[in-house]
């Protein structure tokens, strides 16, 4: 099975400057607006909404999220909440570690969590790559020689 495509900002693949700019422009247009990134009505409980808002708040500066990501973020929030609940249950009653249904549920929510992270480009490697890209962009903006050449 092929791996899902990642945003150009978090890709490790070597692309030409023109390819990167074209992909960034396309992704920006496809991402749409980012003005309505709120939990979907009736889909999340209060704890899941807190997780949703926490993720959105932490990623606001990266500008990788768009309104279309709301449902992936919601699924991610549900997965995190359920994984935490399962771990809490096991911590309270360690004999539950032997419960097959609980292990299967934990496995399902863990896989769902990692899948949603991959869909959103939220792995530690992706965030590190975004950090480097943002740093390079800032350095290029502040470089007086590049500023003169742009004029």
What does this structure look like?
InterPro entries: Phage_term_ssu_P27. This is Phage terminase, small subunit. Pfam families: Terminase_4. This protein has 151 residues and is mostly helical. 66% of the residues lie in helices and 0% in strands. The termini are far apart. It contains 6 helices and no strands. The chain has a domain at 34-132.
In short:
The protein has 151 residues and is an all-alpha fold. The protein contains six helices and no strands. It has a domain of 99 residues.
Number of strands: 0
Q: How much helix, percentage-wise, in residues?
A: 55-70%
Counting helices, strands and paired strands, the structural category is mainly alpha
Q: Kindly report the average pLDDT value.
A: 80
- Any idea what the shape is? elongated
* Low-confidence regions: none
**How much of the residues is beta strand, in percent?**
under 5%
- Discrete helix count: 6
Q: How much is the radius of gyration in Å?
A: 19 Å
Distance between the termini: 47 Å
N-to-C order of helices and strands: HHHHHH
The largest β sheet comes out as: none
Layout of secondary structure:
Elements: H1 17-31, H2 46-59, H3 70-92, H4 100-120, H5 124-142, H6 144-150
Helix pairs in contact: 2-3, 3-4
InterPro entries: Phage_term_ssu_P27 (IPR006448)
Protein name: Phage terminase, small subunit
Pfam families: Terminase_4
List the main descriptive attributes of the protein structure presented here.
151 residues, mainly alpha
């Amino acid at each position: 099975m092929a791996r899902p495509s990642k945003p150009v900002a978090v890709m490790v693949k070597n692309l030409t400057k023109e390819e990167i700019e074209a992909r960034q422009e396309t992704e920006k247009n496809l991402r749409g607006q980012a003005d309505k990134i709120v939990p979907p009505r009736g889909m999340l409980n209060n704890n899941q909404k807190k997780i949703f808002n926490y993720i959105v708040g932490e990623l606001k500066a990266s500008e990788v999220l768009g309104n279309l990501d709301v449902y992936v973020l919601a699924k991610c929030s549900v997965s995190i909440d359920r994984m935490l609940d399962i771990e809490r249950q096991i911590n309270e009653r360690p004999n539950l570690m032997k419960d097959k249904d609980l292990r299967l549920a934990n496995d399902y929510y863990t896989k769902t969590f990692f899948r949603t992270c991959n869909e959103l480009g939220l792995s530690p490697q992706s965030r590190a790559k975004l950090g480097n890209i943002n740093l390079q962009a800032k350095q290029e903006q502040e470089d007086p020689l590049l500023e003169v050449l742009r004029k």
